[in-house]
């Protein structure tokens, strides 16, 4: 199916709008119209939904979430989903995508996740021909950069 990523992300923002308001989180969605990918809607949805849910759950209050498609070439779109929250300490960065890996067991147990979200994200990215990495931004906050093939 041909998926419009701008619409998909717009839908997610609407779905989480109450939580955004409660936590005073601002989403800056810089996706332009017509980012079209031939792929699977529910997998593509799970990528953006998990990243958004995580930022809402872990990054803190009074933060910003920035969603951007910063590059396009013949075969790929390049995305970033970044928040201005607390980030994670550097030793965790490369393990975030492991199944059941959670950074702060005590803190995050109350938040009730299983640690599968980012493993699902990574799989969905790979299925769409891309790759994903995480880094902490200078100003603080976690940034995910990933590619998605226009046609898988
Ligand atoms: P699930 O997604 O299965 O409900 P989870 O959210 O704990 O559980 P992941 O989505 O894989 O699992 O995330 C792994 C861990 O990475 C989280 O437990 C959290 O500690 C950390 N994390 C993820 N995103 C952020 C973020 N934006 N800011 C700070 N920490 C984060
Ligand atoms: Mg999660």
Automatic annotation (TrEMBL):
Domain (Histidine kinase) ranges: 1-152
Name assigned to this protein: histidine kinase
Domain of life of the organism encoding this protein: Bacteria
Places the protein is found: Cell membrane
